[in-house]
Amino acid sequence: MLTQHRKPVSLSLVSTDLPLWSVVETAATLYQKTCEQFHIVLHEPPLQQLELATPRLLWLDISPYRVTMSMQASGKVSYRHSWQQGAYGYSYYWLQSQSFKPQEQLRLRNFTCNLKLVGQTLPENLRLEYELWSEKVQMGRYTLNLDIHH
């Protein structure tokens, strides 16, 4: 059962203890995989400071129990995050250089404090609160919020 819907979305990432705040408002394609699992694909705007010319695709795999978010592009930065309620997940960042060295990877852990998916038949809001960790050092608390407008 793979159905497709085009919806306007607002995706925000806010740190509750650092001066970090980012919002993306765009259209996304919502794929319904099962009655509780959805794929959401949207364009992430280019990062100006890295001089990337092309927009990148942001892919979210969401359910009431688990969220995975990936961005892979031909640019200089890619990432993949995995969150699950009350559990440690991972956050990978790949930094691509112009040399012939293999891609360098930065691996962090995250702990999901709260994961809430709201919506009757289609998701309307996803709220994800998590902590980011490097070894035993906490690198901040974050809230990821996805609003899907119907």
Characterise this structure.
By secondary structure, the protein is mostly beta strands. It has one domain: Beta Barrel (Lipocalin). Helices cover 0% and strands 65% of the residues. The protein contains no helices and ten strands. It has a ten-stranded antiparallel barrel with strand order 1-2-3-4-5-6-7-8-9-10. A hairpin with an 8-residue loop joins strand 7 and strand 8 (104-118). It is globular, with a radius of gyration of 16 Å. The mean pLDDT is 87.
Topology readout:
Elements: E1 3-15, E2 21-32, E3 38-44, E4 56-62, E5 66-71, E6 77-84, E7 88-95, E8 104-118, E9 125-134, E10 137-148
Class based on secondary structure composition and strand pairing: mainly beta
Mean pLDDT: 87
What series of H and E elements makes up the topology?
A: EEEEEEEEEE
Number of domains: 1
Q: Could you please say which CATH topology applies here?
A: Lipocalin
Main features:
about 150 residues, mainly beta, Lipocalin, ten-stranded antiparallel beta barrel
In short:
This protein has 150 residues and is mostly beta strands. The protein has no helices and 10 strands.
